[in-house]
């Protein structure tokens, strides 16, 4: 029994796709008896490969392939007759073709900036556009982009900065209310060390 008469099948597929069938292998057996002459099963012997093969010899991928992870996958495939006699293995080479999509590159996933810092920070110093060898004229190209900035803290916006309030209080000095009470100090309404506030989420920083 042999698969593909000793040939080494090879095929090229695009990355990022799931195929119903990539390639089909077929085993033949010179034995004419039903038990030893019929092919009942195919198997991929190569471990840890994102491929599967059915009883008809059809190979497909179980997850989208990545050209960056692997340029090609070499699979060792065998067939079994109905008496579970194994054939000699044949090597199937599945080459992964890189699919380029126009996109922006060089954007950092995270940029740290200290609040109240007077220093400027360049957001995208290495940004560039990958056009994948697209042929287009400059006057026909229109590129639009937008940038949104937000914090992951429990409060948002510029009004979350309590340091400005503290500075104003210190500059204005003690002030009196109508009952001659001193209102220059701040009262901590959510003290961290109390039982009723221990499960609350606090912002970073001293304020």
Automatic annotation (TrEMBL):
InterPro entries: Cadherin-like_dom, Cadherin-like_sf. GO terms for biological process: homophilic cell adhesion via plasma membrane adhesion molecules; positive regulation of synapse assembly; positive regulation of synaptic transmission. Residues 2-111 form the Cadherin domain. GO terms for cellular component: cell surface; postsynaptic membrane. Its main location: membrane. Keywords: Calcium, Cell adhesion, Cell membrane, Glycoprotein, Membrane, Postsynaptic cell membrane, Repeat, Signal, Synapse, Transmembrane, Transmembrane helix. SUPFAM superfamilies: Cadherin-like. It is a single-pass type I membrane protein. PROSITE patterns: CADHERIN_2. It is found in: Postsynaptic cell membrane. GO terms for molecular function: calcium ion binding. PANTHER family: CALSYNTENIN (PTHR14139), CALSYNTENIN-1 (PTHR14139:SF2). Belongs to the calsyntenin family. This is Cadherin domain-containing protein. It comes from Anopheles maculatus.
């Amino acid at each position: 029994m042999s698969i593909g008469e000793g040939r080494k099948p090879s095929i090229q597929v695009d990355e990022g796709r799931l195929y119903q069938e990539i390639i089909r292998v077929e085993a033949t057996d010179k034995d004419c008896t039903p038990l030893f002459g019929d092919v009942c099963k195919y198997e991929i012997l190569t471990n840890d490969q994102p491929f599967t093969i059915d009883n008809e010899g059809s190979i497909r991928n179980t997850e989208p392939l990545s050209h960056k992870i692997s340029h090609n996958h070499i699979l060792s495939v065998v067939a079994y007759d109905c008496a579970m006699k194994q054939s000699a293995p044949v090597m199937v080479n599945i080459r992964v073709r890189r699919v380029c999509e126009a996109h922006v590159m060089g954007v950092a996933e995270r940029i740290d900036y200290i609040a109240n810092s007077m220093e400027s920070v360049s957001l995208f110093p290495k940004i560039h556009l990958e056009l994948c060898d697209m042929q287009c004229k400059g006057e026909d190209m229109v590129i639009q982009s937008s940038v949104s900035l937000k914090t992951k803290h429990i409060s948002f916006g510029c009004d979350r900065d309590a340091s400005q309030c503290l500075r104003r209080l210190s500059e204005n000095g003690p002030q009196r209310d109508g009952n001659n009470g001193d209102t220059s100090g701040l009262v901590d309404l959510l003290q961290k060390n109390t039982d009723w506030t221990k499960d609350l989420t606090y912002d970073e920083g001293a304020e």
